[in-house]
Amino acid sequence: MQKHRRRVVGTALLVVALVALGLTASAQAKLVGNYTKFVQCPYSNPEVRKCLYSTTNSGEVVLGSKKVPIEKPVVLQGGTLKAVEGTAKFVAASNGITLSKAPQNVPGGILGIVPEASSPPLVKALIKFFLENSLTGVNSTLELAKPASEITINETSLVGEEGTALKLPVKVHLENPFLGKNCFVGSSTTPIIWNLTTGETNPPVPNKKITGKAGQLEFLEEGSIAEIKENVLVDNAWSAPTASGCGGILSFLVTPIINAQLGSTAAGHNTAVLNNTLFTASAAAVRENNELNP
Description:
By secondary structure, the protein is of the alpha+beta class. The protein is built from five helices and 14 strands. The two termini are about 40 Å apart.
């Protein structure tokens, strides 16, 4: 009899456990289709109005005398609050990776020797082999310099090709075994501020005006998601502080060398061109997709 009771109790506990697991599983919904791009959007936050996922697939960043092509995709993701006078503040991605860190190769490596465009292919290959390897090569990684809340977006400017569409506070991390781990241009106290536009810039000399592009708008998921292809954001009026922290304990020797290679980083000597594909959706639509897919 006692053994029978134990068996009944054990079975009852097992049933309760299975029911609990079933309830847990049904509560763990997921995004499907094109909504999966917004998996790190903080859409559960009732103050978040929109979700954004943008990939910069190509372009370039010119910092002083150094031009770095964007060869590895850089992702900006998260949410936005209600717009005030057309401009909305950003909300950080749920996983904390609002701006992905994608190391880009710096042509010429640590010595900064870049062959002429007309140089023979063999010369270009040799310079790349000797100056852009694991020891002499340099990576340039764009990082956020301020909290995500310091990022702002103006959708009217984005599609209207006029004014600042995206304000982005960044810093540039220069990485090489000889430079140490703390070689940066820009910081949380002295960030580089990009006022990116799809319209025309008005930079100080010697830079000249350049123009971005709103891109092509398409709608997905029965109009719930907006996709903007061939979007080009530009800014060539920004300034940057000098590099700091390069070379570890030999920073007092190495940092001046890096700054000499960069040359002037005052306004009029720098450029950012970002070629993007953007996806946006209302947070409500993302929440609904999540709730409908257990």
